[in-house]
User: Fold this.
Amino acid sequence: MSKTISLTRYLVEQQRKTATPSGSGGRIPPELRLLLEVVARACKNISHAVNKGALGSTLGSVMGSAESENVQGEIQKKLDIIANEVLIEANEWGGHLAGMASEEMEGIYAVPNRYPQGEYLLLFDPLDGSSNIDINVSIGTIFSVLKMPEGGRAVHEADFLQAGNKQVAAGYCLYGPQTTLVLTVGDGVAMFTLDREQGSFVLTEENVQIPPDTQEFAINMSNMRHWDTPVRRYVDELLAGKDGVRGKDFNMRWIAAMVADVHRILCRGGVFMYPWDKREPDKAGKLRLMYEANPMSWLVEQAGGASTNCKERIMDLQPGRLHERVSVVLGSKNEVERLTAYHHAHVNAL
Ligand code: AHG
Ligand code: MN
Ligand code: MN
Assistant:
């Protein structure tokens, strides 16, 4: 009988795997293991709410016609708020966190004084792909874990402003035909499928690898006229297919939920782009650096792919603000490097 490995068992084995002979310094300290299990539990609850759909009064926007907006000026759906609350309530009392930050909250959420303070910081996009909620198409939760730079004091927003290369764990939970939790703690990428009968996440894929070459790309083509020259050049070449300089045909997919597009890329390769464009030239991009681009970049890199803002490695960017936006190109390494090189060539030619 093949053995079933639960998320708990995977995390315990990760903890042992790299423990030093003195017994300290495992890759996953117990508090981080607890944190990840609590996040997974919260995702199970969100998955349940997502599954209920119209039966659970969870569809639609907040307060009917009087729609509310989040700090980014986007309309909040009921599920955005529900998912945010589920994650906060699940994580605030366990003693593993100092604070949380979310797409749906303007400022940070410090763990209330009535609970013990931990040394980790949790950032999340509680519900990614909100425009898919009401049409029964895949959505997800994205999360990133950082350490408090120093303990023994109150948490401030500045504590969260760490580059992606400082993450200690990152992942997402995809609410699709299956509910799938995808995780890295810096030792490759593992995928877990929710077994609803057992109520637990079961390891279904380990050592996920993104092939360096691909014939599939993802970008919102309706923005083409707003793109910068290198992006246009790159996509024009993809569209030219066999007859163009690439000498092969490319296929396109766009799910409008980064979490689902990235999942496809982790499963079979591809390149995902949400580049800066001229619609709002003062914004660096649409996607948020700290709780969308950074965790996805680490997962993609851990699977052998690459991720840049079209110029530099995303994980090396120093965030200046919690809700900072960024241009994103990630996925199969050779494609990401090609588009990034086109940007450098363009800048050098100016
Ligand atoms: P969110 O629902 O958290 O605001 O994020 C949606 C993001 C991302 O997931 C997706 O790739 C992109 O927005 C879709 O943008 P378009 O609507 O421009 O296609
Ligand atoms: Mn999002
Ligand atoms: Mn969101």
